[in-house]
């Protein structure tokens, strides 16, 4: 998370970001996996239709589709042990 925020600072011309732990906690959520995020965001079953995922879709393709969806609608930070998603 720190590396991500430092990169945002750099991308904004080096303007420092004021640390606001409450805003960070409200804006970002951590999940053990991409599929855990999708289950929490879409629910399960037919709701996955928004991601064009069918019952026989391989797990790695499911992750790719979820990753693409998040990148199209928000921000995704992946790290060993989970993902952090900017709430949207």
Give a short summary of the structure.
The chain is an alpha+beta fold. It has four helices and three strands, in the order ααβααββ.
Strand order of the largest sheet: 1-3-2
Share in β-strands? 5-15%
Count of DSSP strands: 3
End-to-end gap:
17 Å
- Please, how many helices? 4
> Looking at the structure, what is the overall shape?
elongated
- Over the alpha carbons, how many angstroms does the gyration radius reach? 15 Å
Tally of separate domains: 1
Amount of helix: 40-55%
Largest sheet: 3 strands, antiparallel
The pLDDT mean sits at: 86
Structural class: alpha+beta
Following the backbone from N to C, one meets helices and strands in this order, namely HHEHHEE
Identify low-pLDDT runs. Answer: none
Topology (elements, then pairings):
Blueprint (H helix, E strand, L loop, with lengths): L1 H10 L9 H7 E4 L2 H9 L16 H15 L2 E4 L2 E5 L2
Give a verbal description of the structure.
By secondary structure, this protein is of the alpha+beta class. The chain has one domain (2-86). It contains four helices and three strands, in the order H-H-E-H-H-E-E. Strands 1-3-2 form a three-stranded antiparallel beta sheet. The protein is elongated and about 45 Å long. The two termini are 17 Å apart. 10% of the residues are buried.
Key phrases:
88 residues; three-stranded antiparallel beta sheet; alpha+beta; 15% strand
